[in-house]
Amino acid sequence: MHPEKSDLQTAIRNYLESRPRSVRWREWLSGRRYRLVPLRDRSRPLYVIAYSVRDDAHSGEMARALEHDWIEAPAHTREKYDEILFRAPQLVVIQLDRTNVCGCLGHRHVSVREAPFAMPHDAFGSEHAGEMDIAFERVRDWQALPLSDTALDAKFLHGSRLNDFHAKQFRLRLLSIVLHETNHLVSPDEPETSVRERSLNFYRDALAHYTENAIATLSLTIDRSFSRLE
């Protein structure tokens, strides 16, 4: 992790704890929680997952997608986001919701709605934060690439391997939406077709990479099992 990212996390935690007790109590009673998550190989942005306490498990899935699934994706597909991430706001808030009225997967916000981050603060370098919302139930039901998703799904039999695949698939969908909306934050005038193509290519390549490695590991396990029987 970049040292400056670690310092930023500490500064933000201190800032959140330094707010008036009444503000913090109201926030706690409302069930609002925050989780700070970096991209491990990037100096920015630091993502803040804003979520309801009842959705703690899903915020954990989002955090795992950002912190682990990102770095496990092939280098060449991560490199497509080099400039975008470099130009991103130092702090990006992800409002994690179950669903939304419009039926979209997510949106970038022109202005920040999450109260603690709505105004620039010394804790995050006096910069304006960026913000997006993501509806995770809609993302779960989303068929990102129906044909290739079905083809990859068919490579796994029922059981734990298939469950692992579906969990990874969901997290990569979340991650691709985060990257998609981060792209919009950085380049609001870039055509939607271009932004979508980049994020779908990331999703496709990352999922194919995972599938290839998972099947190779499974084949090796089977080979070793048969070797012990000989």
Oligomerization status of the protein chains: single chain
The overall strand count is 5
Q: Tell me the distance between the termini.
A: 46 Å
The biggest beta sheet reads: 5 strands, mixed
Number of domains: 1
Residue fraction in strands: 5-15%
Structural class: alpha/beta
Helix content percent band: 55-70%
Number of helices: 9
Give the C-alpha Rg. Answer: 19 Å
Low-confidence stretches are 220-230
Q: What is the residue-averaged pLDDT?
A: 86
Q: Largest sheet, order of strands side by side?
A: 1-2-3-5-4
Molecular shape: globular
What sequence of helices (H) and strands (E) makes up the elements? HHEEHHHEEEHHHH
Folded structure, characterized:
The protein has nine helices and five strands; from the N terminus they run ααββαααβββαααα. The radius of gyration is 19 Å and the shape is globular. 31% of the residues are buried. Helix 3 packs across helix 8. The longest helix is centred in the C-terminal third of the chain and has 38 residues, at 192-229. By secondary structure, the protein is of the alpha/beta class. The termini are far apart. It has a five-stranded mixed β-sheet with strand order 1-2-3-5-4. It has one domain.
Question: Briefly, what is this?
Answer:
The protein has 230 residues and is of the alpha/beta class. It has nine helices and five strands; from the N terminus they run H-H-E-E-H-H-H-E-E-E-H-H-H-H.
